[in-house]
Design a protein that fits this description.
With 247 residues, this protein is an alpha/beta fold. The protein has a single domain, classed as Undecaprenyl pyrophosphate synthetase (3-Layer(aba) Sandwich), CATH 3.40.1180. The chain has helices at residues 3-6, 23-29, 34-55, 74-97, 113-125, 142-158, 169-174, 221-232, 242-246; strands at residues 15-19, 59-66, 101-105, 133-140, 186-189, 208-211. Strands 3-4-2-1-5-6 form a 6-stranded parallel beta sheet, sandwiched between helices. Strand 3 (101-105), helix 5 (113-125) and strand 4 (133-140) form a beta-alpha-beta unit. Helix 3 runs parallel beside helix 4 (74-97) and helix 3 (34-55) crosses helix 8 (221-232). The structure holds farnesyl diphosphate (FPP). The site of farnesyl diphosphate has 20 residues, from helix 2, helix 3, strand 2 and helix 4. Farnesyl diphosphate binds at residues 20-25, 34, 38, 41-42, 45, 62, 64, 69, 83-84, 87, 136, 191, 216.
Length: 247
């Protein structure tokens, strides 16, 4: 039986976040350059976006480029930026047909101008979609996001618009890049690495973590369904006891 058919439809996570990892290692297995892995990672993105839409996930956040990725060799960074522009150009019509909306989180102003423009074009074009929201984390890191939030809150305090005593979880949420979305219930990382790498640290306080050895270019929607099946069979206690959950 396929994992998709085993899923409980009213317990699909609203928000799934994925650390797409292993492109470089995947390429090396066949003696190719790292960018070959990134190019083949696009097929995995396509499949996972389609799968998330099919089962009613509302938000799918993909860690596509971290703040730390800027220190990779210039050729690789340029190739990734070029790939991003190409994929957005090629896929926006299909995303529109699939009723997918696009959002980005991260230090967008640090991206090359052509990438910013292509993203803005696609976001605008997909703005009336009502299905899955695809969130691309680009030039993103959680420490950057939290630091920016603190700076903006401090400015508001200085202007007398926020009292320090008003700063609580909800207010912090409003200053995060993810303010319009629920926190991810499930975070997936591919490639066998078991770390978070500066991704959504604030938002994953109570997320379920799922690590798979599969390298990103081999990942497909059925793998996503397997992760969600695993998620649906976990007990989420949020600090309570099992007994309290039953009663
Ligand atoms: C991590 O693998 C992957 C990335 C840094 C880039 C992810 C990009 C894509 C999947 C392509 C395009 C994406 C979109 C959203 C259009 P790695 O390079 O760190 O792999 P390694 O750990 O094996 O070296």
């Amino acid at each position: 039986m396929l994992f998709k058919d085993k899923l409980i439809s009213d317990r699909i996570p609203k928000h799934v976040a994925i650390i797409m990892d292993g492109n470089g290692r995947w390429a090396a297995q066949s003696g190719n350059e790292r960018t070959f892995g990134h190019e083949h990672g696009v097929e995995a993105v396509r499949s996972v976006v389609a799968g998330a839409g099919e089962i009613g996930v509302q938000y799918l956040t993909l860690y596509a480029f971290s703040t730390e990725n800027w220190s990779r060799p210039k050729d690789e960074v340029d190739a990734l930026m070029g790939l991003l522009v190409q994929v957005i150009s090629d896929e926006t019509d299909e995303l529109q047909k699939s009723n997918v909306r696009l959002r980005v989180i991260g230090d967008i102003k640090s991206l090359p101008q052509n990438v910013q423009e292509k993203l803005a074009w696609s976001i605008e074009k997909l703005n009336s979609s009502t299905g899955l929201t695809l969130v691309l984390a680009l030039s993103y890191s959680s420490k950057w996001e939290i630091t920016e939030a603190v700076k903006r809150i401090a400015e508001q305090v200085k202007l007398g618009k926020i009292e320090p005593s008003e700063i609580d979880n909800e207010l912090m949420d409003r200053f995060m890049n993810t303010s319009e979305m629920p926190d991810p219930e499930l975070l997936i990382r591919t490639s066998g690495e078991c770390r978070i790498s500066n991704f959504l640290l604030w938002q994953i306080a109570y997320s379920e973590l799922y690590f798979t050895p599969k390298l990103w270019p081999d990942y497909r929607k059925e793998d996503l369904f397997e992760a969600i099946y695993d998620f649906q069979n976990r007990e989420r206690r949020f600090g309570k006891t099992s007994q309290q959950l039953v009663s």
